[in-house]
Design goal:
CATH class of the largest domain: Alpha Beta
Shape: elongated
Bound molecules: tryptophan
Length: about 325
């Protein structure tokens, strides 16, 4: 029996290269090793996007397409949509009863996001309860490992504490404390040199057609001091070089850095190498994406089969949870 892994992504925007390298590639890499459950966290997106639910279904579809395009194989892992597995909501409710408010107020993302996101009112019950929903996601599958980035560690710690509290209160071992599988951190900068993010409008999206990807890279900033072709540049000041560090081979990185420092070639030559490498990475994704776009029934079937498998696994856990709380039969 393989260990169970669970992870989710919020459909809060179109998926970009940073998400691919930061998370999705890692999901693909481990799908043979573990019994993986991967899901679209559409209820989580609702905690901050409740005013625009229509966007959530649009982004959810993009996520599903990209999961498959990136190489998640429904024969190997279970792919599902959170809102189609109602046990997440049931467990969220039950866990909310035993969650001390202080624990929620102490989760760092709570105040950070409230301060950072100014265009939405995040003073809601649902938003405060975000970590409870995430804990329910994880615990309802008895997941042993949760592949996430470092920013999610407080949510994992919260999940462990809730599991412990539940098991203690109801004298049970129904809930399993999960561990984070920390994703190796490879920083992908955006077109302007800041972190690649949909909110900075500096991203290369996985849904961008090849011509758009090429155009975006061609118009990227480089070392601002290198104005003329004959000026020598400093690769460390160029976002293009930062992307070479992620997408180009060691030899190519050395080559472009050297050419930049000596004005051996121009920025367009440097970008051409980057474009070639990004294309090589994305071409198989584009192909699979197009294939699934052309067969919506297959796409639907994959999701429905995944939802059903998820319901089965979650249903089993819910039985032990209900019985631990003496809710297993009618009165
Ligand atoms: N909070 C996660 C994020 O923003 C998404 C998420 C929701 C998640 N539920 C989860 C991740 C359960 C791992 C496990 O990235």
């Amino acid at each position: 029996m393989k260990d169970r892994v669970l992870s989710g992504m919020q459909p809060s925007g179109y998926l970009h290269l940073g998400n691919l390298v930061g998370a999705l590639q890692n999901w693909v890499r481990i799908q043979d090793t573990y019994d993986c459950f991967y899901f679209i966290a559409d209820w989580h997106a609702l905690t901050s996007n409740y005013a625009h639910p229509e966007l959530i279904s649009e982004y959810s579809k993009d996520l599903l397409l990209n999961f498959l395009a990136a190489g998640l194989d429904p024969q190997k892992c279970t792919i599902f949509l959170q809102s189609q597995v109602l046990m997440h909501a049931e467990l969220h409710l039950l866990l909310s009863m035993i969650t001390p408010l202080g624990w929620l107020e102490r989760v760092p993302t709570y105040k950070e996001k409230q301060a950072e996101i100014r265009d939405k009112d995040l003073h809601t019950y649902g938003f405060l309860g975000y970590p409870v929903l995430q804990a329910a996601d994880i615990l309802v599958y008895k997941a042993k490992y949760v592949p996430v980035g470092i920013d999610q560690v407080p949510h994992l710690e919260f999940t462990r504490e809730i599991a412990r509290r539940f098991n203690f209160l109801y004298e049970t071992e129904a809930l399993v404390e999960p561990e984070a599988l920390l994703t190796e951190f490879r920083k992908v900068v955006g077109l302007d040199g800041r972190k690649m993010s949909k909110s900075y409008d500096n991203a290369i999206y996985l849904a961008d057609p090849p011509a758009v990807v090429e155009q975006k890279i061609k118009t990227m900033l480089t070392d601002p001091a290198r104005k003329r072709r004959t000026d020598k540049g400093d690769p460390d000041l160029s976002p293009v070089y930062q992307l070479h560090k992620v997408f180009s081979s060691g030899d190519e990185q050395e080559f472009v850095a050297q050419q930049c420092r000596t004005a051996g070639f121009g920025c367009i030559d440097c970008k051409k190498i980057l474009i070639k490498n990004v294309f090589a990475l994305l071409e198989p994704l584009w192909e699979r994406r197009a294939k699934f776009l052309n067969s919506p029934d297959e796409l639907k079937g994959i999701l429905e089969a995944g939802n059903e498998k998820a319901r089965e696994a979650a249903g089993e856990t819910m039985e032990t949870i209900r019985s631990a709380m003496r809710f297993s039969q009618t009165i």
